[in-house]
Amino acid sequence: MQILILSGSRNREGQTARAIQAITKGISEAGGQSETLFLPELSLERCRQCDPDGWGLCRHEGRCVIEDDFSSTTDKVKAADVVVFANPVYFGDLSDSMKCFLDRIRRVVFFKMISGGRGASSEFAKPAIGYCYAGGSGNGTTSCSANLERILQICGFDVVDMINARRQNLDAKIPMLELTGRWLVTKPASGPRFVPPGR
Ligand SMILES: Cc1cc2nc3c(=O)[nH]c(=O)nc-3n(C[C@H](O)[C@H](O)[C@H](O)COP(=O)(O)O)c2cc1C
User: Fold this and answer.
1) Which domain holds residue 151?
2) Domain assignment of residue 157, yes or no
3) pTM to 2 decimals?
4) Ligand 1: distance of its center to the CA of 173 in Å?
5) What is the pLDDT of residues 43-97, one digit of tens each?
6) Is the Cβ–Cβ distance between 55 and 71 less than 8 Å?
């Protein structure tokens, strides 16, 4: 079981990293393997809108024209069984590196949607969780989490959990993050859509 953790913080000793350490502890205790990538350390340019209409090759060919770490990072996402998106809350929203990376994935996935139809299966159709940490006032996790979940779902991930923490309660959540790491090794999946009785 290979679990990829993407961090939107560059700080390997920081608070997002503390949560990642707890999750990886749980993963290894349950017999899984994990790799963590710190997105701000990678060469990940923001989209250049390489056509005048704001799109580019992504819309016509489903790939990105920029030659940086995007392709090798998306290959790792595709190869993983489960992906964790660990995001420090910036302005009540995704961190810049996380937004940049996921926006480029969204564009590439959009090609599949327009060429294969809405139901076209995504190469990213695998379990994922989002983790949002607010280290300042502690506010903004709810908006950040809602945005992150929506973006991940658009990319095709099966979002099996969204976890929020803030400076004031991170210590209390560490044991739960370790348990979450253990749980991820079971490769959890969303259940079938709820159908009301009689329909
Ligand atoms: C540009 C910016 C915006 C931020 N916005 C918020 C915010 O909306 N709410 C909050 O509680 N903390 C905010 N913070 C604090 C970060 O959440 C905190 O510095 C970060 O989570 C620390 O994580 P790290 O130790 O992994 O870097 C912001 C920090 C920066 C740099």
Assistant:
1) 2-184
2) yes
3) 0.95
4) 18
5) 999 999 999 998 999 998 999 999 999 999 999 999 999 999 999 999 999 999 9
6) no
Cα 169 to ligand 1 centre (Å): 15
Domain CATH number, residue 61: 3.40.50.360
Q: Which residues line ligand 1 (CB under 6 A)?
A: 9, 11, 14-17, 88-92, 133-140
- In a domain, residue 122? The reply is yes
From atom 13 of ligand 1, which residue's Cα is the shortest distance away? Answer: 136
Atom of ligand 1 nearest to the CA of 137: 11
**If you take atom 25 of ligand 1, which residue's CA is the nearest one?**
14
Q: How far is the CA of 89 from the centre of ligand 1 (A)?
A: 5
Judge contact between 128 and 152, C-beta under 8 A: yes
Strand order in the sheet with 2-7: 33-38, 2-7, 82-88, 127-134, 158-166
Is the pLDDT at 117 greater than 70? The verdict is no
What's the domain count of the chain?
1
**DSSP 8-state assignment for residue 197:** T
Residue 157 Cα to chain centre, angstroms: 8
Residue 136 lies in a domain: yes
Tell me if 196 is assigned to some domain: no
